[in-house]
Write a structure and sequence with these properties.
Layout lengths: L3 E7 L4 H18 L3 E7 L11 H7 L16 H18 L16 E3 H11 L5 H16 L10 E3 L5 E2 L6 H12 L3 H12 L26 E2 H14 L5 H21 L1 E2 L41 E2 L2 E2 L8 E2 H9 L5 H13 L10 E2 L29 H13 L3 H17 L20 H16 L6
Parallel strand pairs: 1-2
Antiparallel strand pairs: 3-4, 4-5, 6-9, 7-8, 10-11
Length: 469
């Protein structure tokens, strides 16, 4: 039957003592590698303030110490437990009066960023700490308070001056829709934000468009119709549908289906060298031939990289497309249910075959170099090859990678990736990003979304499912 641990409890259990006993017991289970805890109550057991008795409170919150009370898996539980505790410490360092700052370290990003705080929320909402929970709720409220009259959520709000910034505007509102729906549902606010996004389908193609460097890669060349942005849009629409009555919910779900169809039609590269199909939507006149109505040839740049691979292209611009493999966009296509089983397998196999998962996970491959169409002078040294957005390793993306593996039913690979992610985060103190080749930590420590997405990844593995849509 395995090792067992005995715990006599004397006296009454209020909420504070329940939390303390639960934490100590779960850590003892890890330390002694026990499979069973035998609890003997010797006193007046009363219900906690949350309305749960101790036994149900213990089981439903066992994950807060990185332990599953139901499944003693092959995982290095001590490693995962240490990473869970470290993630919670980093999140606490990010807490402020107004919300969850992007970084908790003294040298870092001290604004409340929409994408950072809401991505961190995916896992941070599972941390049993009221200061973290309050910071998450305050983030939702602060961002909503500073939205524009038409419903645009700010990119960030400065924690010192409370001034909003809208520069990299494209994705923060969609993350706000997802985050708020998970923790503090606001149907009216969500509807207004999604109405603003509907106006970003500027050519009525069904796909959102954005200016260059306006999404999470806010110092990179992504522009036009972004894969990441539109996959995120689908995820937000499907998540938001849960907040509404059937008629409104069906409207959102139909919109999500339309966008998913367009992503699959326009973005999926077949590995045949033909880029014409991906640019047809930029023609001003009808027809799908190489010549326009006056007989002039339509010039489309030839494919130069990853010619024989199959994957979703990173962006579609005006008669030009990104060629690199965008990890975040492809992973969200899996998680949002855009990619079917075959395409999901193709994407994950590509990432493994190109060693993108060695340290989960590199932002893109191949790295963009000077002379490439997507190189920009403004990259400077920060976005040199294998740095930052240009092929750097981002631990928060590793959390989405683990979730995609779980979604695909690759449980063994997800467990390995989770352990690799735990080591990466502990080595870099939940760093913002690491060098894409050496793995050296290069960014700010105690990064909120690195910590939050570790918690989310661990929960996905524990449950064996991804509960976002």
């Amino acid at each position: 039957m395995g090792n067992s641990l005995a715990l006599p409890l004397i006296g009454t259990l209020d909420s504070r003592r329940t939390q303390a006993v639960m934490r100590d017991l779960l850590h003892a289970l890890v330390a002694t590698r026990s499979d069973i805890a035998i609890i003997e109550f010797r006193g007046g057991l009363r219900r906690t303030s949350s309305g749960k008795c101790f036994a149900s409170h213990l089981e439903s919150n066992a994950v807060t110490c990185g332990v599953s009370s139901l499944d003693r898996s092959r995982l290095d539980q001590a490693l995962l437990d240490k990473a869970w505790a470290g993630a919670c410490e980093s999140l606490l360092a990010c807490c402020s009066e107004y919300g969850l700052k992007a970084s908790g370290a003294s040298a870092g990003h001290h604004q409340i960023w929409a994408r950072d705080s809401m991505i961190a929320l995916l896992g941070a909402r599972m941390a049993q700490d009221e200061e973290i929970q309050q910071a998450l709720r305050n983030s939702i409220r602060l961002l909503k308070e500073h939205r524009t009259r038409r419903g645009l959520i700010p990119n960030n709000v400065d924690a010192a001056t409370l001034r909003p910034n809208f520069r990299a505007y494209a994705d923060g509102g969609l993350w706000w829709v997802i985050g708020s729906s998970l923790l503090e549902p606001d149907a009216a606010g969500v509807w207004q934000v999604l109405s603003w996004y509907e106006d970003q389908d500027v050519d009525h193609s069904g796909l959102l468009s954005m200016q260059e460097s306006s999404d999470w890669q806010d110092l990179f060349c992504t522009r036009g119709k972004g894969l990441y942005l539109n996959s995120l849009y689908i995820l937000a629409l499907r998540r938001a549908s849960r907040l509404f009555e059937p008629a409104e919910a069906e409207t959102l779900l139909q919109k999500a289906e339309l966008v998913a169809e367009r992503v699959n039609s326009y973005f999926w590269y077949q590995g045949d060298g033909n880029m014409f199909h991906h640019s047809m939507h930029t023609f001003s006149t009808e027809g799908q031939t190489l010549f326009d109505s006056l007989g002039r040839r339509r010039e489309i740049p030839a494919k130069k990289y990853l010619i024989q691979e199959q994957y979703y292209l990173p962006y579609l611009g005006f008669r030009a497309c990104g060629e690199w493999f965008d990890s975040f966009g492809n992973l969200l296509a899996i998680i949002a249910g855009v990619a079917d089983e075959l395409r999901t397998a193709t994407i994950l196999d590509f990432m493994t075959g190109n060693s993108m998962d060695r340290r989960p996970v590199a932002s893109l491959t191949p790295a963009v170099r000077p002379g490439d169409p997507d190189w920009r002078d403004y990259y400077g040294s920060l976005n040199a090859p294998h740095h930052y957005h240009n092929g750097g390793v981002w631990p928060f993306l590793g959390g989405f990678y683990v979730a995609a593996l779980v979604k695909a039913g690759r449980r063994d690979a997800a467990e390995v990736a989770l352990e690799n992610l735990a080591r990466l985060n502990l080595d870099g103190h939940f760093n913002e990003w690491h060098h894409g080749e050496s793995g050296k930590p290069m960014g700010a420590q105690d990064q909120a979304w690195s910590a939050g997405m570790y918690l989310f990844a661990a929960e996905c593995v524990r449950r064996g499912q991804v509960d976002l849509v």
